[in-house]
Amino acid sequence: CRAATECKLWELDRTSFKVIVVAAAMQKREKYMGFLKEVPILTTLTEMETSTLADSLAEETYQDGQVICAQGDEGNFFYVIKSGKAICSQLDAAGDDKVVAELTDGSYFGEVALLTSKPRQATVKASGELKVLAVDRATFTRVMGPLDDLMKRNMEQYNKYAAQGI
């Protein structure tokens, strides 16, 4: 590299860079593990699985009224609400949108899509600014191994959530 004009250059040695990257990753892991430990369907995960999943989460922000997922769509993401509120609605027989749940900090949605092949069971929209932690199906499967194992470990609890229909 060559400077095209006069400039000031800052240097960071390899060791310092690695220390900064590792420290940031550890902070993120610790923060996100707290959220994951509160998700009922993930309570059977081992400490290592929870830690690995925490490393795989991506933070996303949605504005008021923005759709996170729509009823009937293919579902490939699982979400945990970091902050804010989400409204879940389903179309009734008359085609009207009916609110079926309001989700807040620590709530989750999208697990049915990861654990089954069912399309989205509800539309989820942000109510005000919403921050979520998201993981896609491919990453979740890679991190957690076959999803069947997770379902078998906690089938009774999963059936309870699946019976709610959202």
Topology of this structure?
Layout: H1 14-37, H2 47-56, E1 58-62, E2 67-69, E3 77-91, E4 97-103, E5 108-109, H3 111-115, E6 123-136, H4 137-144, H5 147-153, H6 155-163
Antiparallel strand pairs: 1-6, 2-6, 3-4, 3-5, 3-6
Helix pairs in contact: 1-2, 2-4
Summary, kept brief:
By secondary structure, the protein is α+β, with helices and mostly antiparallel strands.
Describe what you observe in this structure.
- The protein is of the alpha+beta class.
- Helix content is 38%, strand content 28%.
- It contains 6 helices and 6 strands.
- It has helices spanning 14-37, 47-56, 111-115, 137-144, 147-153, 155-163; strands spanning 58-62, 67-69, 77-91, 97-103, 108-109, 123-136.
- The longest helix has 24 residues, at 14-37.
List the main descriptive attributes of the protein structure presented here:
alpha+beta, 6 helices, 166 residues, single chain
Question: How much helix is in the residues?
Answer: 25-40%
Give the ordered list of helices and strands: HHEEEEEHEHHH
Number of strands: 6
Whole-number radius of gyration? 20 Å
The tally of helices reads: 6
- Terminal CA distance: 54 Å
Major β-sheet annotation: 6 strands, antiparallel
Which of globular, elongated, flat, extended, rod-shaped describes the shape? globular
Q: Supply the helix-strand structural class.
A: alpha+beta
Unreliable stretches, pLDDT < 50, 5 or more residues? Answer: none
Nearest-integer average pLDDT: 82
Give the percentage of residues in beta strands. 25-35%
